[in-house]
Structures are given as structure tokens and as C-alpha cells.
Amino acid sequence: MRKRFIVGAVSLLACLLTACTGLAPLGDFGEQQETETTESVTLKVVTTFAGNDGNAQVYRKAYKAWEKETGNSVADMSSNSDENFKMRVINDFLTGSEPDVLFFFSGADANSFIEAGRVVSLGEIREEYPDYISNLDITRIPPSMVDGKIYAIPVSGYWEAMFVNTTVLEAAGVEVPGADYTWEQFLEDCEKIKEAGFTPIAAALGNIPHYWWEYAIFNHTPPKRHQAIPDSVDDAMGEAWVAGISDIVDLYQRGYFPKYTNSVTDENTFALFMEGKAAFLIDGSWKVGSIVQNCQEIANDESTLDEEKLAQFTVTFVPGTQSRQATDLIGGTSMGYYISRKAWNDPDKRDAAVSFISYMTSDEVVPKFAKHAANILKNPPTASVEELNSLQKHAVDMLAESTSLTPAVQDIFQGECRVTTFDEMPDIVNGRVSPYDAVRKGLEIYREQGEE
Length: 452
Fold this sequence. Notes:
This protein is α/β, with parallel strands linked by helices. It folds into 2 domains: 22-157 and 333-381, Periplasmic binding protein-like II (D-Maltodextrin-Binding Protein, domain 2, 3-Layer(aba) Sandwich); 159-330 and 399-451, Periplasmic binding protein-like II (D-Maltodextrin-Binding Protein, domain 2, 3-Layer(aba) Sandwich). Helix content is 40%, strand content 11%. The protein is built from 18 helices and 10 strands. The strands form 2 sheets. Strands 4, 5, 6, 7, 8 and 10 form a 6-stranded mixed β-sheet that branches. Strands 2-1-3-9 form a 4-stranded mixed β-sheet. α2 (56-70) links the parallel β1 and β2 (73-76). The longest helix has 18 residues, at 236-253. Mean pLDDT is 88; it is low at 1-28 and 30-37.
């Protein structure tokens, strides 16, 4: 098993490295298209490439280049990804207001509109466009949980880990965590950081508790069991979920989160981290771009990067426990482009949607999104670590030491069942609701949803 993973990790690292090349100026996007439309078409497109997402500017320049090449246009409705965004997308499909093209989660969040037949599968698209995304290795695209078909076409993979503001650690006399970092060491370090006058953990528990929820539970479930939904709050997996959420309560009671963690936004706590007021931030690979942009004199101009400022940040492993090694990461492929049934039924929009996604997933464009994350190109460009900035290099080094990549269980645990432990996390950490009752209620809703 260990040998098999090492081979897989080396393969993944190769993808990471190859994804980091082709760093021509952002305006030099490829011109590959599956089809050409004869009349100008406007596509309503919704993605998560917005706000602090490091690829927001890359996405904007990419679709502008596509517009120029095709004469079509994009009505961009992109928004930051949170629970409100997910519910808004789902409701749009319910009310017939869905976009033509959607970049969205490929897990259980998409089940409702897939079950309703409101998006088109890869198989159906290829019946009319046989060469659609032929440059991608579709064996690495996760199928839908609904029917085993592929609907979401990804741009890149992802990983989740712990970003570190090293200036805070240095001021508090704490070393940068390594591959053998334990939960006990983490608690000791957080106490030192707190005593030094800083906030140990940058997180908005009332807005986006997702990453801490995932890793806290992961710390009580070994990788091979992490994606199993508990049958009951009282079985072994249910107990693991309660234990994980209880760890978040403990961190809160120790005062390791920002003072207003239950009421501020993720953008607020990210600012604390960037300003040298908070030490640790768990987030996804997409956050690398956000940190880099915040270290540029001009956010969208890579040539203005302040290397000295960027050098204050690194990324490392989330503290582990006996169940999970620190080097076991959350990661995989979780998002992709969908074509709505409504757009598919319009011949002009059908052609434009296929063209748009083909462009966004082309060999030329994908590396611009996947600079430090894996891609699924059949023929990725040659890599050179020297072309990466310091934070991207830290990410590649971290991935080289990882021992496993496990998809997030929250991608399976969908919709209303997450409310009791996601939206209502402030009630849990404040003691108004026990972790046991929150998990119990969420699992009951999950089972009820499965019976409908």
C-alpha cells in the first residue's frame, strides 16, 4: 500500500510540476475550440472565480480572450463560494433561472439538478461533439453519485493544507510546523502565539467553518474510512464526527480563533492573516493565488510582486493525530464546468457552451489555472520549478512529502444536513447546541433526504 501511494504521489507531483509551466503573459491564451458559432451568442456563466479566489483574474482574462476569438460574449455572474452560493445555484435550477454554463461542485451538492435532468452528461455531449475535451484524461474525472455519469469537467485538482504567517511565529518564538506536527504541539504553539498578543487561527466559524470541520473530523478517521457517512451518531464514525467538532469547540474556548469569529466574514479573517495578526490559516490550493495577489503592489500585475513580503508566508501540513498523520491531506478533483439542459436545447447556445468549456479546458489555458495544483491534461507541458514563486515552491515541496490525498467528505454530505454543523457552528462553539446533538440531527436529515 505504501509503495503504491508513493508511486501515485510521484505521479501527482509530476502533474503539479507540469501544471506550473506555460507561464506566458496572461493575455496569451490558447485558441483551441471545438466549434465555431455563426452568430453572436451571450452565455450566462456562473463560476466561483471571484473575490479573493486567486484565479479570478485568470478566469476573466481567459473568457475575454474567448470572446475576442469567437465574437460571443459572457454574462459573468461569478461569486465567492460559500453555503449561500451553493443554495442560490440550486434554487436557480429549481426556478428555471439556471445559467447556461456553471462551474460548480461535482459531489453531492450537484445531485438535485442532475437528478432533475437539468444538466447534460459528457456522454450525451460527445454524441454530437465526439472530440469534446479529448485532451483531458477522463479516467481521472469523478463520476456523479447519482448515475455514475460524468457531468462536471474540471480545470484542475485541489489540495487543502495549513498556510502560515512566519513573522507571527517568529515573534511568538514558534517554529514553522513540519511533516510530523502533532495536535498536542499545535495546542502548545497556539497558546504561545496567544500569549504573544496574536490570534493563533484565522477562521470565520460563522461564515466558512468548512476547512476546520473537515480536518477536525479527519483527525479522528483514517484516510481509508474518512469518506464514510456515519449510520448513526453512536457508531464509530458518528463518534469520530462528534470528537472532531468537539476539538473545534475546545479551540474556541481556549481563545485561539479571532474575537469575532462567529460574526465576521472569511475575507475579514484572511486580512488578519495577511496583516500579520494571525498565524495559521487552513484553506485550499486556490488560496496560494490570493496570498500572492496580496503581496503585489498592483493586485493583477505579477511583475509587481514583492518577493520579500511573499517570503513571510509558507504552507505546511495540518496537525495530525494517532488516526491521521499530518502528511495525510484532503485533496482530489471536486469542481468542474456543467452545461445546462436549457442551453443545450438552444442550438446556438449549445455550440457556444461547448466552445467555451473546450477553450477553458484547453492545453494552453489549463496551466494558467493549475500553477501549483494537479491537472488532468493528457499531455501537460514540461515543468520547471524555477519558474515558481516561493509560495508555489513550498506547495510543491509539501505535496512531495504527503502520504495520501483523500476527497472531502463534506462533498458527499449535502444540503440541509450540513446546516446543523456548518451554518450553526456558532451555536455549537458557544455551548447552545452540543456537538453530539448537532451531528445527530444532521445525520437524521441526511437519512431522510436519502429516503425521499
